[in-house]
Amino acid sequence: MIDGRLLDNLGADGEALVAVQTIISLFGEPYLKAKADNKPLSLLWQRLDRLATVELYIFGTCLRKVQEHNEVWLKQAVREIKNNPTKAKGLFTEIIYLGMFSAPRAPVVPALKNNPGFDFSITSDSGRTQYISIKNIDISEQQAAFQRGCRKLRAKWIEKLKITKSSLGIRVASRNSLSHEDFETIIKAIQNQKTIYTGLHLIPKDGIDVFVVNLPTSRRFSPVHTSDSVVVYCPPPNSEIERYTSRVRKASDNLYQKTKHDNSGLRVLFMRMHVNADYSIIEEQARKIVNSPRREADCIVFYQPSYARTQDNSSIIHHCFKIESNAEFARASTQYGVIKCEIPLGSASTEQSINQIQDLVNGSILQVQPSDYLYQQGDIYAIGDVGEHISINSPAPGLREHGVCYINGSYVEVTSKLAPVTEELILI
Prior knowledge:
It is a single chain. The protein is of the alpha/beta class. The protein is built from 11 helices and 18 strands. The strands form 4 sheets. The chain has a 7-stranded mixed sheet with strand order 2-3-4-9-10-11-13. A 7-stranded mixed sheet has the order 6-7-5-8-16-17-18, covered by helices on one side. A two-stranded antiparallel sheet has the order 1-12. Strand 3 (120-123) and strand 4 (129-137) form a beta hairpin. Helix 1 packs across helix 4 (50-69), helix 4 packs across helix 5 (71-83) and helix 5 packs antiparallel against helix 6 (88-100). The longest helix is centred in the middle third of the chain and has 24 residues, at 141-164.
């Protein structure tokens, strides 16, 4: 344990502590403890939940590996992260790449500072070089606006529940992407409703349905807390889908323009994709790029990490890798030996995590596409007797259960500090 953080079941004995201490030694406690919305590592460091600790362990493990082989480059990258927050996300992805991938028969070499074309290279004994460009495609402004609208909707829903002294959930489903005005319309419809009850169906606007539902628990609700859940679903705007394919085209064109055009060079893109990226939409564009006569890129590696749930509701970090390459890359790669990828923690596959909405009351399941916009948050405060086992787990992503006991005339909350307040990955 370090600063109240539980490090059990993370790697072999002592590895988690070393990973966290590596972060401290490189970034310093003043930086890690600084309160700033534009410093993702600092935001993660100040959370003590299990997901934050898992992310820190993975990042710290990658830092250790990079420090062993590329210490000078790493110190420069850390300085850049601390001094220029706008470049932080891209540099985190570079550190994670360099911490996971290696070529046993040739070193992975960082490019010179401010190199415009590629970030790393691998050169074989025969003189063939892979030029590797690292790109990060994070959350879009449209998706961020959707999340902001959902958070405001939830705050207004909780206000309504407090007025009506109710503990209920709402589900919002829209046939079209939701705008700021749409959220305001939904909020107004809820505020104007005098009575709130299970089964209530509101239609604030054509194509938008709001349903009031029971919460997934058989226990009595705490009378001094407000239990709630909010689920919002809508398709993304067309610009969201086009964003990924256009970024792939732009990245491959930049790599082609800024690298040598001779037979000795191989161009590789490593693209860390946001969890909402839908590979079924991207793959056709990627195949066209790697198989074009111009060879803008010989290989594209798509990396999409996600925080997923298994069938038994256990949580896991899932690392999805999708690879598109041409025949020339396959032939030349034999000169480098097998390029290894060592994941510090979690599962890995070539399949994206499945997105689905499950009704925890009746068990029905709705499959949704990765690119669809989905928001789910809620807190359930259930009463239990002293000495009785009280669930303080998370029944579904974004939903948290809190146990409440009545002791000496007061209601006392028993809350797990391991449940994350958000399940959006920050660093990896």
